[in-house]
UniProtKB/TrEMBL annotation:
Pfam families: PseudoU_synth_2, S4. CDD domains: PseudoU_synth_RsuA, S4. Residues 12-76 form the RNA-binding S4 domain. It catalyses: uridine(516) in 16S rRNA = pseudouridine(516) in 16S rRNA. SUPFAM superfamilies: Alpha-L RNA-binding motif (SSF55174), Pseudouridine synthase (SSF55120). This is Pseudouridine synthase. The keyword Glycoprotein does not apply. It comes from the Bacteria.
Length: 245
């Protein structure tokens, strides 16, 4: 499978370029141009209609370089606690505030995490790619590390492992969960590998056994893990990583 592509814009009106690079409005972009704060290739430019070459022209605002995305972005974020996986902030800040790239409004999230859940998030502006990441039919396993409120002895663990491998019909669902792998580290810590993402699935599955998840962390999505990323940090995926989904 090749890397998903979209048509790449090579030239753009300067006022539009500034707006996309800074998230200023077009009107605000024209104001800073008229104030002589914008240079293109070291020359002050006040004409908002000038077309710039996105890849080759050096556009600067008060001496700081500006740039816009020329293709799709594919980003891995190590989500910390206290951030929402939504497009607009409600009670908490949103995860895209942690990512220092232009045009944040075009980014979407593959497989959201609750506010109190940490771990791997894949974020992109390529809708088709995001669908392939999250669709159960593509069988991209997600690994969760969980801490339980109540200890489970060896008998309870054995029963839970067997039931998770068979599939669980959760309350309110019409079909059981797909077979999954549950591994206990000790009486209150476990690792769960899923190939689907039902609403609050991990917490509901543990609730089926009369237990509660008090800490939840997504360690990996498919072949992507968080090696080298601290909480709140992000990086662009490599071309090879993108192509594997």
């Amino acid at each position: 499978m090749g890397i998903p592509k979209r048509m790449v814009v090579k030239r753009m009106r300067l006022d539009k370029f500034i707006s996309k690079a800074t998230e200023l409005s077009r009107k605000e972009s024209k104001k800073i141009m008229h104030a002589g704060e914008i240079t293109v290739n070291d020359q002050i430019v006040k004409d908002p209609g000038l077309h710039v070459d996105i890849a080759n022209d050096d556009v600067m605002w008060a001496g700081e370089p500006l740039s816009v995305a020329t293709g799709n972005r594919y980003i891995l974020l190590h989500k910390p606690e206290g951030f929402e996986c939504t497009l607009k902030a409600k009670e908490y800040p949103i995860v895209t505030e942690l990512i220092a790239v232009p045009e944040l409004g075009s980014l979407r999230i593959a497989g959201r995490l609750d506010v109190d859940t940490t771990g791997a998030l894949l974020i992109s502006d390529d809708g088709g790619w995001l669908h392939r990441v999250t669709s159960p039919k593509h069988e991209h396993a997600k690994v969760y590390e969980l801490t339980l409120a109540d200890a489970m002895d060896s008998d309870a663990q054995e029963k839970a492992v067997k039931k998770v491998a068979e599939g669980i019909l959760l309350e309110g669902d019409h079909e059981p969960t797909k077979p999954a792998i549950l591994e206990f580290i000790d009486e209150t810590h476990a690792r769960l590998t899923l190939e689907q993402g039902k609403y609050h699935q991990v917490k509901r599955m543990m609730g089926y056994f009369g237990n509660k998840v008090v800490e939840l962390h997504r360690a990996s999505i498919g072949h992507i893990n968080l090696d080298g990323l601290d909480k709140g940090d992000s990086r662009f995926l490599t071309a090879e990583e993108v192509a594997k989904f």
